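User: I'm putting together notes for a lab meeting next week and I want to include a structural view of one of the chains we've been expressing. I don't have a solved structure, so I'd like a prediction I can at least talk through. The sequence is below, exactly as it appears in our construct file.
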Amino acid sequence: MKPHLRLASLIFNQPQLVTDPMMSLAVQWANQALNLNIINLTVNGAQPKIMEDGEFDSGAQMAAASERRRALVADTGMDIIPVSGILVSRSAHMNPCEPMTSYEGLRSAVNQAVADPAVEHIVLDIDSNGGSATGAFELADDIRAASLVKPITAIVNFSAFSGGYLIAAAASKVIVSRTSGVGSIGVIANHLDVSKRDEQQGIKVTSVFAGDHKNDLTPHEPLSDQSLTFLTSMVQNSYKQFVDAIANFRGLSTQAVKDTQAGIFFGQKGVEAGLADSVETPQAAINRIAAEVRASRADRQGANARRSVSARAAAMNMQVTM
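Assistant: Thanks for the context. Below is the predicted structure for the 322-residue chain, given as structure tokens.
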């Protein structure tokens, strides 16, 4: 098993656009993967599994997904882009039995759909409790810009919480089912203190540093007032960006967004809160959009045929008069 130090470093001391249960699950994974021996860890549900290299073939999966995409686009004119699991800024090198979506991969998929003339409607199939704040707001802005070129519908199937909802809100329209949820517009950050573990194991870490803030948020000491102030400022800054983005995307006041208090809303309640546009099952929404695209294609084909007939008639008329 490889110690995934880079990914673990993104869990702690960083603002996260994620629900508290998912944050707790991430902490539990780090505890298992790095043998942190966190003594105050409580998480409901199964222990996350750390998968070894070679336990999955991402290359084959990507090739199969690409082939399915081409067939779907050709048949329906829709590009359905999955947004599932933990959201990370860049492609990860692990698969902890939990789907992961990277912002860079999602941006690439949206850009590909916008550039593909065969794609007439983009669908974001969202089932995510959120993830990293890093890169999330930039991606949301890019999705909103893309929605001005081609319609983008976010289908919540079945959760769009925190960072997952930020992505959904950036779309042209947000659809929820009766049991799917939206919201959790808030920010959370955890600091890991392993000083007690170090003491129990006879380990003493001494930091020599220059710059007053260089040792902020070190896990080998209890959280200092200075570090707490710094981490709090990062959380508040991310929260302001989050609130402003949702208010802009959904046409709400910033106070209305704040008043949700990071709550979650299911079905019609999400519509009433202004966080979604309509209630519809995911499959019904897909079928309706596909029918709309087919009708649009038929109208264009009919118009093109009429223009072609008119052009031929005009050409024949010119030949007769000449």
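A couple of points you could mention at the meeting. The longest helix spans residues 282-321. The CA atoms of residues 71 and 203 lie 58 Å apart.

User: Perfect, that's what I needed.
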